[in-house]
Amino acid sequence: MNLPYSHRQHADRIAGAPALDVRNLTVYYPRAQAEPALADVSLCVQPGARVALVGPNGAGKSTLLKAVVGLLPLHSGQIRVFGNPLGVCHCDVAYLPQHGDIDWRFPISLRRLVMTGRYVHLGWFKRPRSEDWAVVDEMIARLGLTALAERQIGQLSGGQQQRALLARALAQDASLFLLDEPLNAVDAGTREVIAEVLAGLKHEGKTVVAATHDLGRLETDFDGALYLAEGREVPAPPGAFEGNYIGHELAH
Amino acid sequence: MNWLTDPLQYPFMQTALLAASLVGLACASIGVYVVLRRMAFIGDALAHTALPGLVVAYLYGWNLSVGAIVAGLLTALGIGWLSRRQEVREDTAIGVMFTAMFALGILLISATRSFRDLSHILFGNILGVTAGDLILIASVTALVLATLFIFHKELELTSFDPTHAEVIGLRPDRLRYLLLVLLALTVVTGIQVVGVLLTSALLVTPAAGAALVTNRLPRMMGIATLIAVGSGVVGLYLSYRYDVSAGAAIVLLCTLCFAAAWIVRYLRQRSQPTL
Question: How many beta-carbon pairs under 8 angstroms link A with B?
Fold first, then answer.
């Protein structure tokens, strides 16, 4: 028996639907009513594509990702993931938050942290099975963390913590990856490992939407880009990477 | 060996030892979450707010513990509700609620000449635990342990990463309510042992001591339980032998264990300067 966390029923993907379809999304942060954090943003990402959300801090990149995983209420507009409304495909969407969202002093090992990526499949009352641990250990190895698996998460370096969070996202075995600044503020070694893993996702046919303000790597790492400033879609700066267009006009 | 066996001849001591152990078990286990989620203030507040419940129950001849439980649950839900939209900060909401409830309790007491159990409520009355109290304590302990076991992975996750919990469809606020309700129940059992004023020590001190010497959650619960149960049993013996307040002795022993844990941590860090 499987009792999922979400109160909504799980729905299968709709064949042919985009991995992520955002239409005219407007989002306000709670208790900050003045300006919307996102205003009338649309984008359409096909399965298997790797897409960058590009813009300065405060442009709305993180807000967009948070809205897609259901952390922020939608003011208006619509989000569909594999053709389904929000909240029915938690299993299919893995989210890599920015570093600050976790209590790193909490007494939990890296291995158990990565295991929390499997919880969405376990649901209430089920304990991790041996196949879950196998997935966890595989992802820990893929990110080069095997020697640190039993270490308390606060005793990891910033780069190791970022790799641990990516291992958790991978352990979820999702189809759509939402990555918030995956390469921000990490050491060169971590950068390399993470870039390698992201390239691997491409081969597995996974869809990736990543927030970044690193213009240098766009061409190598992504197929398309959406430029944001102050919560709105803006045209790509002259000479910047454009790739396949994924923005407003496509979504309509 | 007489000092060990003599007190056991008395049924009230047997009951008291059992009660202290059960309460120690419940308080220490849930206390680990109280410490890790920084809920120490609310634990203390829940103990204080039991006062009007106890008084009202006394006046109407109801079971005292039931009165305390009702008052505690109302406070737990009230605090959660007041601070839900964050118009009032949570610690402010707690401060407002618990002082009001405590004052209400004192007001009721002062209006009631016949009320003579005040010191038992304030400082605990473990030697007066009845069979009925013991059943209630055992039920609460079983409920707390079972809930912590069944919802372990969800409580753990919402404690250190509420964002991920929400992303996968969990409701961190509901798990928090669950914890508050358990806490309100646990506190009522703690009041029997050490009284309204010192109950938060049973929640916080053993868990805080355990947190100093381990960074694994299950081990932390184990060590906290050892501290709380050990202090409960030894404190009762000391209280019997030297005729001092049992509640105060138990709490001070917990504090001693905390100090010992501090020293262990200090020595460990000196021997391993790299960590």
Answer: 71
